[in-house]
Records
---
Amino acid sequence: MVWMIIGMAIVTAVPRFLPAFIVDQIRFPKWMDRWLNAIPYAALGALIFPGILSVKPEAPQIGVIAALVAGALAWLNLNIILVVLGAIASVFIMTF
């Protein structure tokens, strides 16, 4: 049983750590580098957007307004903690 857990840990860890060691040694074409740099933003948007619409399912505009508040605070170059707290505060205010 212990060997099975160790084996699963190794099989899970290798694909996660291996790219960290070889990524500096590979040179991608410029177009691919731009595309790879855009992936984190696309993934973040895909994770955040459904949450924006489901903050309060019967009133999705609350999440949209909170996202706009967070966008405005981020545009002002505020600290990320303040941006998150601003979005949370706007949802809190609009739900009461």
---
Amino acid sequence: MYSVIVPLILFPFLFGEVYLSDEGAALVRDLLDKYPKYIRPVKKESTPVVVTHRLTPIQMIDMDEKNQIIMIKCWLSQRWTDEYLSWDASLYNDITQIQVPIVEIWQPDITLFGSVSDEFQRHYDTDAIIDSDGTVTSLQPFVIRCTCGIDATYFPFDEQECKLKFASWSYDIKFLDMLADNKSDTDRFVPNGEWELVGMPIIRSEEKYVCCDDPFPDITYIIHLKRRSLFYIFNIIFPSFLACVLVAVGFYLPSDSGERITLCVTSILSQFVFLTVVGEFMPPNSEYIPHLQRYFFVSIGLVVVSAVVTASSLSMHFKGPGCEEAPRWLKQFAFRFLARITCTEVRLKGRFTSSYLRSTRSARRNSITRNSMATYSGGEDIPLEQQNNICMDQEKSGPETPIDCETRLMSKPTVMNNRGNVHYRVERHVDNLDIEVYEKRLREWREVARIMDRSFFIFYIALLVLLVTGFLSSIAISASNKHRLAAQESH
């Protein structure tokens, strides 16, 4: 009994499904058998096909700043009316919608202008949704790879606007018109670690080309992206600031340490490394110079000036015992002006070079006595040339060698009976050296060098902090103001 009742209950549903499937196949066959695939789907030639276009950005794949190319994944939607694909739903069991491969019907040749893809692809082979009134909806996933003008003036606080322009390649406004779908939004955009999608303004315009008399309509989507700058702050800007701080540490080191020039050279090399890293993100053009590169140029120049000041202070610190006195204007500038500004105490008391001066004096006396004059036992001062002649004559007349002769002459007691003698004058000058005068001169030079180091240390730290905070904050403020004005103009 159950075997009879169950088939009777399921019979209408089973045969209804078969009937509906047959009706759908008959509908597709009736629509596509004599369908004019390669002509515009209008029965009156003067009627333009109106295409409603929509773009939904999904994910930011890549932004190639150097080559000025953007790659973004999005969804495209195109909707138009095909007068050859309408039917009476009552004749086909109330079927109001069908899906057919898009390659089987006419579709507009709307193309992305500025595409840099290897193939000039305008669609994917997806199915088109067709309603009974002839409305065709084409939903297609698309990976856009096109040009995008990069303005890196405010890098890494920059905002970029990539314009995606869609238009027909062969139909002007008499044959095809374009409208922007108001459902275009950015709600499905996947957050990106480097870029933030601020908005997507849509502009419809008409443009004339040299090929045709009538304009071509187009829809332009402006992808407004804002760079997330935290990565570059912690990996480029902050390390470069620390490298510049090393120069200030060099001014704090004593001059005798010998590491100050090394710190300056290391800082300059690190600044060039960071400048090279930033240059890899910049497009190779000469239209503008990013402000961050200008910051590195200024910091490099500041380090170079610091190296020059360091070399000057080291030269003052390591003056020899026969140095000249420090100029009066330099001492007044250092002791009265720089010392007061930097609150540095002037220290000119103490004895710290007497032993050095005494040893230098002894060395000079021995050198002068040995090379300037030799004396002979007769009580007369004999120049060195006459000694050589005497030794040569004795060599010819006797067995004594020139070396023994010179030794004997140098070992004779010296008799200073002639005040006009060169030996006497030099010895008298060396004996009368005033060690206190030279100590005072060395103290003054070293104190000038110390005060200049302390002054430039404070000046360098203040200028460096002002450079980093003021320069980078001005970049951020200028960038935000620029794009705010641009947004107001677009609205």
---
Amino acid sequence: MYLRLELVRALRNPWTIGFSVLMPVALYLLFGAGPAYGAMETPRGTVAGMIMANMALFGAMMASTNVAGSVSDERASGWTRQLRLTPLSPVYYIGAKLLAALAIGLFVVTITFAVGVATGARLDLPYAAWAFLLAWLGGTTMFAVFGLAVGYLFRGEAVLGVVGPFMSLFAFFGGVFIPLEQLGSVMSTIGQYTPMYGLRSLLASLTLGAEVEPVAVAGIVCWTALFAVVAAWRYRRVAGRE
């Protein structure tokens, strides 16, 4: 029942859904749609297909961080305190948040891929399917946990002040918009240890045939674990005070 409530609340917010879809689609149309990139071949499709996958990943990440705002609102309204008076366990509470984020992420990634394919982007099978799953499951899971951590660390408007700038920095240093090679050796080195780099690197291995980097896989595991630990720690602290 609680999962259903989370899904209904998420899907009935037109502003959140609209922005989550509009952002990656607009970025794809700006950077990837066009005859030049549509005709430019890569080992596993076209450049437009690679940009489509990158923007879908970014969209899933942005959509999943909306959980930070919902957690902050629940804390401010006293809803979190009320839930602790019910038989609902913390595991189911967190699980419902993550599943709701996955539902929104699936919607965002599907729309972005659909617009990309409709405008000439191409990725060869099965790489297109794997890229879709990585953008959806990978991007949503890591940054939904990040959103939970931020939601329990900060209150009110401070949440938006943290999520927005950090996501922009993560995307910049992760090479989502600009290849790190163009930013110099120092930026490239720093970028390898930022949260988005691992997911974007794995996506490049799927869309461009690039070699899988061990640091990318390690980064995904370590950052997701770190966000989860912070979220769990803060949830316990908040539960003890509010």
